[in-house]
Amino acid sequence: MTTQDATTAGPDTSGATAGPRLSPAIVLLFAIACGLSVANVYSAQPLLDTMASDLGITPAAIGIVVTLTQIGLAFGLMLIVPLGDLWDRRKLIVGQIALSAIALVVVGTAPNAVVLFGGMALVGLLAVVIQVIVAFAATLAAPAERGQTIGTIQSGVVSGILLARFASGALADIGGWRVVYLTSAALMLVMAALLARALPRQAPQPLAGASYAKLLRSTATLFTEEPVLRERAVFALLAFASFSAFWSSIVLPLAAPPLSLSHTTIGMLGIAGLAGALAARNSGRLADRGWGQRTTGLSLLLMLAGWAPIACLNTSLWLVLVGVVMIDFAVQAIHVTNQSLIVATRPEASSRLIGVYMVFYSIGSGLGAIASTIVYAAAGWLGVCALGGSISAVALLYWVIVVSRMPAPVGACSVSS
Protein backbone atom coordinates (compact mmCIF):
# COMPACT_ATOMS: atom_id res chain seq x y z
CA MET A 1 0.00 0.00 0.00
CA THR A 2 1.30 3.46 -0.85
CA THR A 3 0.21 6.93 0.11
CA GLN A 4 0.28 9.86 -2.25
CA ASP A 5 0.06 13.55 -1.62
CA ALA A 6 -2.23 16.00 -3.29
CA THR A 7 0.01 16.49 -6.26
CA THR A 8 0.04 12.80 -7.14
CA ALA A 9 -2.97 11.36 -5.36
CA GLY A 10 -5.07 10.84 -8.42
CA PRO A 11 -6.54 12.42 -11.46
CA ASP A 12 -8.04 15.82 -10.91
CA THR A 13 -11.37 16.02 -12.61
CA SER A 14 -12.61 19.09 -10.86
CA GLY A 15 -12.13 21.13 -13.92
CA ALA A 16 -15.11 19.33 -15.38
CA THR A 17 -17.38 20.69 -12.70
CA ALA A 18 -19.64 23.26 -14.26
CA GLY A 19 -20.75 26.26 -12.29
CA PRO A 20 -19.52 29.50 -10.74
CA ARG A 21 -16.09 29.83 -9.18
CA LEU A 22 -15.67 30.87 -5.59
CA SER A 23 -15.40 34.55 -4.72
CA PRO A 24 -13.55 35.65 -1.56
CA ALA A 25 -16.86 36.84 -0.10
CA ILE A 26 -18.46 33.41 -0.50
CA VAL A 27 -15.41 31.71 1.02
CA LEU A 28 -15.65 34.07 4.01
CA LEU A 29 -19.38 33.36 4.38
CA PHE A 30 -18.65 29.63 4.23
CA ALA A 31 -16.01 30.05 6.96
CA ILE A 32 -18.42 31.95 9.23
CA ALA A 33 -21.22 29.42 8.67
CA CYS A 34 -18.86 26.57 9.53
CA GLY A 35 -17.65 28.42 12.62
CA LEU A 36 -21.18 28.90 13.92
CA SER A 37 -22.13 25.30 13.13
CA VAL A 38 -19.13 23.73 14.84
CA ALA A 39 -19.59 26.04 17.84
CA ASN A 40 -22.87 24.25 18.52
CA VAL A 41 -20.94 21.01 18.98
CA TYR A 42 -18.16 22.33 21.21
CA SER A 43 -19.84 25.06 23.26
CA ALA A 44 -20.95 22.46 25.81
CA GLN A 45 -17.41 21.67 26.95
CA PRO A 46 -16.91 24.57 29.41
CA LEU A 47 -20.51 24.12 30.59
CA LEU A 48 -20.40 20.45 31.52
CA ASP A 49 -20.22 21.01 35.27
CA THR A 50 -23.15 23.46 35.21
CA MET A 51 -25.25 21.16 33.04
CA ALA A 52 -24.50 18.27 35.39
CA SER A 53 -25.52 20.27 38.45
CA ASP A 54 -28.70 21.64 36.84
CA LEU A 55 -29.97 18.31 35.50
CA GLY A 56 -28.63 15.91 38.12
CA ILE A 57 -25.96 14.19 35.99
CA THR A 58 -22.89 12.78 37.75
CA PRO A 59 -19.45 14.25 36.87
CA ALA A 60 -18.22 10.88 35.58
CA ALA A 61 -21.19 10.62 33.20
CA ILE A 62 -21.40 14.21 31.95
CA GLY A 63 -18.95 13.38 29.14
CA ILE A 64 -21.88 11.51 27.55
CA VAL A 65 -23.17 14.93 26.40
CA VAL A 66 -20.13 15.29 24.14
CA THR A 67 -20.15 11.62 23.16
CA LEU A 68 -23.81 11.67 22.09
CA THR A 69 -23.17 14.78 20.04
CA GLN A 70 -20.36 12.94 18.29
CA ILE A 71 -22.59 9.90 17.75
CA GLY A 72 -25.16 12.14 16.09
CA LEU A 73 -22.36 13.64 14.04
CA ALA A 74 -21.23 10.18 12.94
CA PHE A 75 -24.72 9.24 11.74
CA GLY A 76 -24.98 12.54 9.90
CA LEU A 77 -21.65 11.92 8.21
CA MET A 78 -22.77 8.51 7.02
CA LEU A 79 -26.35 9.35 6.05
CA ILE A 80 -26.52 13.08 5.24
CA VAL A 81 -23.15 14.25 3.91
CA PRO A 82 -23.11 11.80 0.93
CA LEU A 83 -26.32 13.49 -0.25
CA GLY A 84 -24.12 16.39 -1.35
CA ASP A 85 -23.08 14.24 -4.34
CA LEU A 86 -26.75 13.60 -5.16
CA TRP A 87 -28.79 16.69 -4.24
CA ASP A 88 -28.40 20.43 -4.73
CA ARG A 89 -25.84 21.36 -2.07
CA ARG A 90 -27.26 24.88 -1.78
CA LYS A 91 -30.66 23.59 -0.63
CA LEU A 92 -29.05 20.93 1.56
CA ILE A 93 -26.88 23.49 3.36
CA VAL A 94 -29.69 25.98 4.01
CA GLY A 95 -32.07 23.24 5.16
CA GLN A 96 -29.58 21.76 7.62
CA ILE A 97 -28.80 25.12 9.19
CA ALA A 98 -32.49 25.94 9.62
CA LEU A 99 -33.14 22.56 11.27
CA SER A 100 -30.11 23.09 13.50
CA ALA A 101 -31.82 26.16 14.97
CA ILE A 102 -34.77 23.97 16.00
CA ALA A 103 -32.47 21.38 17.61
CA LEU A 104 -30.71 24.14 19.58
CA VAL A 105 -34.04 25.36 20.95
CA VAL A 106 -34.74 21.79 22.14
CA VAL A 107 -31.41 21.74 24.01
CA GLY A 108 -31.88 25.22 25.45
CA THR A 109 -35.30 24.35 26.88
CA ALA A 110 -34.51 20.76 27.96
CA PRO A 111 -36.31 19.95 31.25
CA ASN A 112 -34.28 16.83 32.00
CA ALA A 113 -31.22 14.81 31.02
CA VAL A 114 -33.10 12.63 28.51
CA VAL A 115 -34.28 15.59 26.44
CA LEU A 116 -30.83 17.19 26.70
CA PHE A 117 -29.14 14.02 25.42
CA GLY A 118 -31.61 13.68 22.56
CA GLY A 119 -31.26 17.33 21.61
CA MET A 120 -27.47 17.16 21.61
CA ALA A 121 -27.58 14.10 19.36
CA LEU A 122 -29.72 16.11 16.90
CA VAL A 123 -27.31 19.02 17.10
CA GLY A 124 -24.49 16.67 16.14
CA LEU A 125 -26.54 15.05 13.36
CA LEU A 126 -27.17 18.43 11.70
CA ALA A 127 -23.71 19.91 12.33
CA VAL A 128 -22.42 17.88 9.39
CA VAL A 129 -23.46 20.85 7.27
CA ILE A 130 -19.79 21.79 7.75
CA GLN A 131 -18.67 18.85 5.62
CA VAL A 132 -21.27 19.62 2.94
CA ILE A 133 -19.92 23.17 2.80
CA VAL A 134 -16.29 22.00 2.60
CA ALA A 135 -17.16 19.59 -0.23
CA PHE A 136 -19.08 22.32 -2.06
CA ALA A 137 -16.15 24.72 -1.76
CA ALA A 138 -13.62 22.07 -2.83
CA THR A 139 -15.68 21.38 -5.95
CA LEU A 140 -15.96 25.05 -6.91
CA ALA A 141 -12.34 25.97 -6.16
CA ALA A 142 -9.64 25.84 -8.84
CA PRO A 143 -7.46 22.73 -8.39
CA ALA A 144 -4.34 24.75 -7.53
CA GLU A 145 -6.29 26.66 -4.85
CA ARG A 146 -8.25 23.77 -3.33
CA GLY A 147 -6.01 23.28 -0.31
CA GLN A 148 -5.89 27.01 0.38
CA THR A 149 -9.68 27.26 0.13
CA ILE A 150 -10.19 24.33 2.48
CA GLY A 151 -7.63 25.89 4.83
CA THR A 152 -9.49 29.21 4.88
CA ILE A 153 -12.82 27.53 5.64
CA GLN A 154 -11.12 25.32 8.22
CA SER A 155 -9.85 28.50 9.88
CA GLY A 156 -13.48 29.38 10.44
CA VAL A 157 -14.09 25.93 11.90
CA VAL A 158 -11.15 26.22 14.28
CA SER A 159 -12.17 29.73 15.31
CA GLY A 160 -15.68 28.44 15.98
CA ILE A 161 -14.39 25.57 18.10
CA LEU A 162 -12.10 27.72 20.20
CA LEU A 163 -14.13 30.92 20.48
CA ALA A 164 -17.23 28.86 21.29
CA ARG A 165 -15.65 27.89 24.57
CA PHE A 166 -15.00 31.51 25.50
CA ALA A 167 -18.36 32.81 24.26
CA SER A 168 -20.37 30.02 25.87
CA GLY A 169 -18.52 30.47 29.14
CA ALA A 170 -19.16 34.22 29.13
CA LEU A 171 -22.86 33.83 28.24
CA ALA A 172 -23.27 31.13 30.90
CA ASP A 173 -21.80 33.41 33.56
CA ILE A 174 -24.31 36.10 32.54
CA GLY A 175 -27.52 34.14 32.01
CA GLY A 176 -26.88 30.41 32.52
CA TRP A 177 -26.04 27.61 30.10
CA ARG A 178 -29.47 27.63 28.43
CA VAL A 179 -28.90 31.16 27.08
CA VAL A 180 -25.94 29.81 25.12
CA TYR A 181 -28.09 27.48 23.04
CA LEU A 182 -31.00 29.88 22.55
CA THR A 183 -28.57 32.53 21.29
CA SER A 184 -27.00 30.00 18.94
CA ALA A 185 -30.44 29.12 17.56
CA ALA A 186 -31.08 32.79 16.64
CA LEU A 187 -27.68 33.10 14.95
CA MET A 188 -28.29 29.95 12.89
CA LEU A 189 -31.58 31.33 11.57
CA VAL A 190 -29.81 34.51 10.45
CA MET A 191 -27.10 32.45 8.74
CA ALA A 192 -29.69 30.32 6.93
CA ALA A 193 -31.24 33.47 5.46
CA LEU A 194 -27.86 34.84 4.36
CA LEU A 195 -26.81 31.60 2.69
CA ALA A 196 -30.15 31.25 0.90
CA ARG A 197 -29.48 34.60 -0.78
CA ALA A 198 -25.73 34.33 -1.37
CA LEU A 199 -24.91 30.74 -2.37
CA PRO A 200 -24.44 30.08 -6.08
CA ARG A 201 -26.87 27.74 -7.76
CA GLN A 202 -25.30 24.43 -8.65
CA ALA A 203 -25.21 22.33 -11.80
CA PRO A 204 -26.63 18.79 -11.52
CA GLN A 205 -24.45 16.43 -9.50
CA PRO A 206 -22.60 13.49 -11.13
CA LEU A 207 -24.93 11.04 -9.34
CA ALA A 208 -28.13 13.03 -9.92
CA GLY A 209 -30.99 10.58 -10.40
CA ALA A 210 -29.24 7.71 -8.61
CA SER A 211 -30.93 5.99 -5.69
CA TYR A 212 -30.01 6.72 -2.08
CA ALA A 213 -29.06 3.07 -1.59
CA LYS A 214 -26.67 3.24 -4.54
CA LEU A 215 -25.17 6.40 -3.10
CA LEU A 216 -24.46 4.72 0.25
CA ARG A 217 -23.00 1.65 -1.45
CA SER A 218 -20.67 3.83 -3.50
CA THR A 219 -19.57 5.56 -0.30
CA ALA A 220 -18.51 2.23 1.22
CA THR A 221 -16.75 1.33 -2.02
CA LEU A 222 -14.67 4.50 -1.88
CA PHE A 223 -13.32 3.47 1.52
CA THR A 224 -12.19 0.09 0.21
CA GLU A 225 -10.68 1.51 -2.98
CA GLU A 226 -8.78 4.55 -1.71
CA PRO A 227 -5.71 3.89 0.51
CA VAL A 228 -5.22 7.64 1.05
CA LEU A 229 -8.71 7.84 2.53
CA ARG A 230 -8.11 4.90 4.88
CA GLU A 231 -4.77 6.21 6.11
CA ARG A 232 -6.03 9.75 6.64
CA ALA A 233 -9.08 8.43 8.45
CA VAL A 234 -6.83 6.74 11.01
CA PHE A 235 -4.89 9.98 11.48
CA ALA A 236 -8.18 11.80 12.10
CA LEU A 237 -9.38 9.25 14.65
CA LEU A 238 -6.18 9.41 16.70
CA ALA A 239 -5.55 13.16 16.42
CA PHE A 240 -9.06 14.10 17.47
CA ALA A 241 -9.18 11.52 20.25
CA SER A 242 -6.16 13.28 21.76
CA PHE A 243 -7.63 16.73 21.06
CA SER A 244 -11.00 15.84 22.61
CA ALA A 245 -9.36 14.22 25.64
CA PHE A 246 -7.97 17.63 26.57
CA TRP A 247 -10.92 19.89 25.78
CA SER A 248 -13.59 17.59 27.24
CA SER A 249 -11.92 17.30 30.63
CA ILE A 250 -9.97 20.53 31.21
CA VAL A 251 -13.03 22.24 32.71
CA LEU A 252 -13.10 19.70 35.57
CA PRO A 253 -9.77 20.61 37.28
CA LEU A 254 -10.04 24.30 36.40
CA ALA A 255 -13.53 24.70 37.90
CA ALA A 256 -12.69 22.70 41.04
CA PRO A 257 -10.73 23.93 44.09
CA PRO A 258 -8.07 25.20 44.48
CA LEU A 259 -8.35 26.99 41.11
CA SER A 260 -12.15 27.47 41.01
CA LEU A 261 -12.03 29.49 37.79
CA SER A 262 -15.15 31.02 36.24
CA HIS A 263 -16.60 29.76 32.97
CA THR A 264 -15.47 32.96 31.26
CA THR A 265 -11.88 32.44 32.38
CA ILE A 266 -11.92 28.78 31.39
CA GLY A 267 -13.34 29.69 28.01
CA MET A 268 -10.42 32.06 27.41
CA LEU A 269 -8.23 29.01 26.89
CA GLY A 270 -9.89 28.83 23.49
CA ILE A 271 -8.46 32.21 22.55
CA ALA A 272 -4.96 30.89 23.23
CA GLY A 273 -5.68 28.06 20.80
CA LEU A 274 -6.53 30.42 17.94
CA ALA A 275 -2.98 29.90 16.69
CA GLY A 276 -4.38 26.65 15.32
CA ALA A 277 -6.73 28.63 13.10
CA LEU A 278 -3.75 30.51 11.66
CA ALA A 279 -2.05 27.19 10.92
CA ALA A 280 -5.02 25.85 8.97
CA ARG A 281 -4.67 28.14 5.96
CA ASN A 282 -0.90 27.69 5.69
CA SER A 283 -1.09 23.92 5.91
CA GLY A 284 -3.57 23.96 3.03
CA ARG A 285 -1.03 25.79 0.92
CA LEU A 286 1.63 23.24 1.86
CA ALA A 287 -0.66 20.43 0.75
CA ASP A 288 -1.21 22.22 -2.56
CA ARG A 289 2.57 22.22 -3.03
CA GLY A 290 2.95 18.52 -2.26
CA TRP A 291 4.25 18.75 1.31
CA GLY A 292 1.39 16.87 2.93
CA GLN A 293 3.33 14.00 4.48
CA ARG A 294 6.00 16.22 5.98
CA THR A 295 3.36 18.55 7.42
CA THR A 296 1.59 15.56 8.97
CA GLY A 297 4.71 14.16 10.61
CA LEU A 298 5.87 17.46 12.10
CA SER A 299 2.35 18.21 13.35
CA LEU A 300 2.05 14.82 15.06
CA LEU A 301 5.37 15.39 16.80
CA LEU A 302 4.20 18.82 17.97
CA MET A 303 0.93 17.33 19.25
CA LEU A 304 2.82 14.76 21.33
CA ALA A 305 5.16 17.40 22.74
CA GLY A 306 2.23 19.64 23.67
CA TRP A 307 1.07 17.27 26.38
CA ALA A 308 4.23 17.89 28.46
CA PRO A 309 3.42 21.53 29.39
CA ILE A 310 -0.27 20.65 29.73
CA ALA A 311 0.68 18.14 32.44
CA CYS A 312 2.01 21.08 34.50
CA LEU A 313 -1.50 22.35 35.28
CA ASN A 314 -0.91 22.43 39.03
CA THR A 315 2.39 24.26 38.54
CA SER A 316 1.68 26.94 35.97
CA LEU A 317 -1.34 27.91 33.88
CA TRP A 318 1.03 29.68 31.49
CA LEU A 319 2.57 26.34 30.59
CA VAL A 320 -0.92 24.98 29.93
CA LEU A 321 -1.52 27.87 27.53
CA VAL A 322 1.66 26.95 25.65
CA GLY A 323 0.48 23.36 25.39
CA VAL A 324 -2.95 24.48 24.15
CA VAL A 325 -1.36 26.47 21.31
CA MET A 326 0.86 23.51 20.37
CA ILE A 327 -1.95 20.94 20.28
CA ASP A 328 -4.47 23.15 18.50
CA PHE A 329 -1.90 24.21 15.91
CA ALA A 330 -0.91 20.59 15.26
CA VAL A 331 -4.38 19.07 15.11
CA GLN A 332 -5.79 21.65 12.72
CA ALA A 333 -2.76 21.41 10.42
CA ILE A 334 -3.31 17.65 10.26
CA HIS A 335 -7.02 18.11 9.62
CA VAL A 336 -6.61 20.52 6.72
CA THR A 337 -3.87 18.41 5.16
CA ASN A 338 -6.00 15.28 5.46
CA GLN A 339 -8.96 16.85 3.67
CA SER A 340 -6.81 18.36 0.93
CA LEU A 341 -5.19 15.02 0.13
CA ILE A 342 -8.45 13.10 0.27
CA VAL A 343 -10.43 15.40 -2.01
CA ALA A 344 -7.57 15.37 -4.53
CA THR A 345 -8.04 11.64 -5.08
CA ARG A 346 -11.56 11.99 -6.54
CA PRO A 347 -12.87 15.57 -6.57
CA GLU A 348 -16.18 14.47 -8.13
CA ALA A 349 -16.87 12.38 -4.99
CA SER A 350 -15.84 15.06 -2.49
CA SER A 351 -18.96 14.84 -0.29
CA ARG A 352 -18.70 11.09 0.13
CA LEU A 353 -14.94 11.17 0.70
CA ILE A 354 -15.18 13.85 3.39
CA GLY A 355 -18.19 12.12 4.94
CA VAL A 356 -16.29 8.85 5.37
CA TYR A 357 -13.21 10.65 6.68
CA MET A 358 -15.21 12.63 9.20
CA VAL A 359 -16.86 9.49 10.60
CA PHE A 360 -13.45 8.62 12.00
CA TYR A 361 -13.00 12.18 13.26
CA SER A 362 -16.30 11.82 15.12
CA ILE A 363 -15.42 8.41 16.54
CA GLY A 364 -12.10 9.73 17.81
CA SER A 365 -13.68 12.83 19.35
CA GLY A 366 -16.38 10.81 21.09
CA LEU A 367 -14.01 8.19 22.46
CA GLY A 368 -11.58 10.86 23.64
CA ALA A 369 -14.36 12.73 25.46
CA ILE A 370 -15.81 9.83 27.42
CA ALA A 371 -12.41 8.24 28.08
CA SER A 372 -10.93 11.47 29.47
CA THR A 373 -13.77 12.11 31.93
CA ILE A 374 -13.62 8.50 33.13
CA VAL A 375 -9.83 8.64 33.48
CA TYR A 376 -10.04 11.97 35.30
CA ALA A 377 -12.47 10.52 37.84
CA ALA A 378 -10.08 7.60 38.43
CA ALA A 379 -6.59 9.10 38.07
CA GLY A 380 -6.90 12.89 38.01
CA TRP A 381 -5.34 15.31 35.55
CA LEU A 382 -2.04 13.45 35.18
CA GLY A 383 -4.04 10.41 34.14
CA VAL A 384 -5.73 12.45 31.40
CA CYS A 385 -2.33 13.71 30.21
CA ALA A 386 -1.00 10.17 30.08
CA LEU A 387 -4.03 9.19 28.01
CA GLY A 388 -3.65 12.08 25.57
CA GLY A 389 0.10 11.62 25.24
CA SER A 390 -0.26 7.89 24.60
CA ILE A 391 -2.81 8.48 21.82
CA SER A 392 -0.49 11.06 20.24
CA ALA A 393 2.44 8.64 20.38
CA VAL A 394 0.39 5.95 18.63
CA ALA A 395 -0.54 8.44 15.90
CA LEU A 396 3.11 9.37 15.37
CA LEU A 397 4.10 5.71 15.22
CA TYR A 398 1.38 5.09 12.63
CA TRP A 399 2.74 7.93 10.51
CA VAL A 400 6.21 6.37 10.61
CA ILE A 401 4.72 3.05 9.48
CA VAL A 402 2.77 4.71 6.64
CA VAL A 403 5.82 6.64 5.38
CA SER A 404 8.04 3.56 5.60
CA ARG A 405 5.68 1.77 3.19
CA MET A 406 5.96 4.49 0.58
CA PRO A 407 8.26 4.02 -2.42
CA ALA A 408 11.44 6.05 -2.65
CA PRO A 409 10.36 9.71 -2.87
CA VAL A 410 10.46 11.45 -6.18
CA GLY A 411 9.02 14.80 -5.12
CA ALA A 412 8.89 16.95 -2.05
CA CYS A 413 6.84 14.64 0.18
CA SER A 414 9.62 12.52 1.64
CA VAL A 415 10.88 12.10 5.13
CA SER A 416 14.52 12.52 4.23
CA SER A 417 14.31 15.24 1.58
Overview of the structural elements:
- There is one protein chain.
- This protein is an all-alpha fold and about 425 residues long.
- It has 17 helices and no strands.
- The protein has helices at about 25-40, 50-55, 65-80, 90-110, 115-125, 130-140, 145-175, 175-200, 210-225, 225-245, 250-255, 265, 270, 275-290, 290-310, 315-345, 350-405.
- Helix 7 (about 145-175) packs antiparallel against helix 8 (about 175-200) and helix 10 packs across helix 17.
What key phrases describe this protein's structure?
17 helices, disordered C terminus, disordered N terminus, mainly alpha, 417 residues, globular
Order of helices and strands: HHHHHHHHHHHHHHHHH
Please state the overall shape, judged from the principal axes of the Cα atoms. Answer: globular
Described by strand count, sense and barrel closure, the largest sheet is:
none
Nearest-integer average pLDDT: 82
Low-pLDDT residue spans:
1-19, 408-417
Helix and strand composition category: mainly alpha
Percent of residues in beta strands? Answer: under 5%
